[in-house]
Amino acid sequence: MLKSVKVDVSGSSMSIELATPETDGPFPGLILCHHREGVDEFTLDAAKRLAASGYVVAVPNMYHRRLAEEGWQVSRKYLHDLEIVADIRATAGLLMRQPSVRPDAIGIIGHCMGGRTAFLGAAILPLFKVAVMLYGGHIFKTEGQGMPPPIEFTKDIRAVMLGLYGKDDHVIGVEEVKRLDGELRRHNVKHEFHIYDNAGHAFQDFSRPDMYRKDASDDAWKRVITFLHKSFQ
After folding, report:
1. Which domains does the chain have, with CATH numbers?
2. Is the Cβ–Cβ distance between 132 and 165 less than 8 Å?
3. Which pTM value belongs to this model?
4. Nearest in space to 115 (alpha carbons), one of 95, 138, 94
5. Is 108 left (phi over 0), alpha (psi -120 to 50) or beta?
6. CA distance 104 to 127
7. Which of 24, 53, 136, 212 is most solvent-facing, going by the fewest CB within 10 Å?
8. What's the pLDDT band for 34 if we cut at 50, 70, 90?
9. CA distances from residue 38 to 6, 13, 71 in whole angstroms, order as listed
10. How far is the C-alpha of 26 from the C-alpha of 46, rounded, in Å?
């Protein structure tokens, strides 16, 4: 089931899509962070997949401070890490207030830009038990003013992490993935990484046939669900 709710974030009304399983809970809760294209067909499909696997999924629209008719190409330029953290906090609060959600079992996941957001959320908020990054990069860079890059908070991560990437990714190169792996190891953050051959950026995005790789995407979904089930036991 999918329904829309709104929460206030510092005077701005943020829309959140809630996807829930068909059976009775309680269930673990997940924040699904959208990619740069926003809360689109691909992201909502991902939310439904996760809900069908036994999770209550909250998808916040992190472009809520921008005009609704503005294209994502413009909205993306105005995202700031401090505001993203505020959005994550508000979404986590909504999730934990749901009667069907286990407040001790909250995770965060995202694709592309959302993968970076998932890392940022796990690095800032110790409440997350699990974090999944699907080809999320630029973790060594800051967005906006007032905060250092997300990588600077690696020592504070309490979540177990899964990262899935494409070997031919033109946005996040293999060297960046290796560098991130090294930082997580240095700070003893439990994690699993996998890099797919013959796959590049956005390999799960079926709305982009030039990028979509079905075999890698199907395998990645299996890995994600298995990882979540294991981590939330």
Report:
1. 2-231 (3.40.50.1820)
2. no
3. 0.97
4. 138
5. beta
6. 8
7. 24
8. very high
9. 16, 16, 9
10. 20
Contact 130, 159 (CB under 8 A): yes
Residue whose tokens read 């982009």: 208
In single-letter form, the type of residue at position 95 comes to: L
What number of other Cβ atoms are within 10 A of residue 216's Cβ?
21
Gap between the Cα atoms of 63 and 76, Å rounded: 8
- What's the mean pLDDT when you consider all of the chain? 97
Total number of residues shown for the chain = 233
In tens, the pLDDT along 116-153 reads 999 999 999 999 999 999 999 999 999 998 899 999 99
Secondary structure tally for the chain: helices H, strands E: 6, 8
List the one residue out of 41, 21, 9, 46 whose CA is nearest residue 31.
Answer: 46
Encode burial over 120-146: b for 16+ CB neighbours within 10 A, e otherwise.
Answer: bbbbbbebbbbbbbbbbbbbeeebeee
